[in-house]
Amino acid sequence: MNRATRVVNVTLSVLLVTVTVSGVLAFAVGTPVAAGWIVGVHGASGLGLLLLVPAKVAVARRGLRRPGRSRKVISLALAGLAGSAVASGLLHAFAGWAPVLGLLPMQIHVGTAVATALLLAVHVGGHHRRRGGGRRPLLRRTDLDRRRALLGVGVVAGSAALWFAVPGRERRATGSHEIADVARVPVTQWLFDAVPRTDRRDLRVRTPGGAVDLAALPRSSVRAVLDCTGGWYTEQEWQGVPVAALGLPAGASVEVVSRTGYRRRFPARDAATLLLATHLAGRRLTAGHGAPVRLVAPGRRGFWWVKWVVAVEVVDEPWWWQPPFPLQ
Q1: Residue ranges covered by each domain of the chain
Q2: What pLDDT is stored for residue 238 in this prediction?
Q3: Which of 185, 297, 307, 326 is deepest in the core (most CB within 10 A)?
Q4: What is the pLDDT of residues 115-130, one digit of tens each?
Q5: Exposure string (b/e) for 18-33, b if CB count within 10 Å is 16 or more?
Q6: Please, are residues 220 and 263 in contact by the beta-carbon 8 Å criterion?
């Protein structure tokens, strides 16, 4: 591999790692200030990939002339997936959250990005094998010389300039587009959960002290932002009973459980801000939006807002001792 080729490949690798890590963090963080920085790094890194396209095309042409069919197939597939990830990200920024061929742009973006990361690991692992079973190091001391540093600074500066010059439609700090009309809020659930059959009149929730009828407790209201990882958000008035009003015993964490088995764990200190909602914008929740009871978790992304709540449990494990994203 000549020096120029390695400069391009190392720079691309750094950008791909940065865009992947920041993309995962952007999904997890719902607070505006932190999310704004993370999404900014994510978007600028993705645009930085576009700046290196001409150089990478020249490198790829030389590589495709070499023997080895499987490597060529992987290289072309990787280019197609990475291009689709960037294109769908731009589509989300400019067109909003409207579906394309039955899928949201953000769903296409995430799906192709995950496939790109997996295929990249295979590609890099095979590319750096030496004869005899050894491996070339992914990074070398020479990768930190002045020439590479200048290229890195140039790519970072160009990426940032593109990010500010091509802002797309107005979005929240997390990158989500607003849905102001409550009637247009989509019905979504995490992964493969289906809307269960429930009795909207049954407002009982299991707790360590027994079943609690939420209808018998005073109702509170909170205006909170539901920010879905599908790429949209809505700010609405939610009515229900604060988790703190359930009289839970002391514990390290509070776990909220759905009828489907879906569950998320929160620090005990959040009990005062968590709301077991029964109404949205003054009306009873519909089945698709979590009736009869759903959790409202201000400041957290939509997958924390557990639907079809049947139980609130107190556990001794810390709240962070769980998968960062639900596996169900």
Answers
A1: 3-178, 182-315
A2: 97
A3: 307
A4: 988 887 776 666 555 4
A5: bbbebbbbbbbbbeee
A6: no
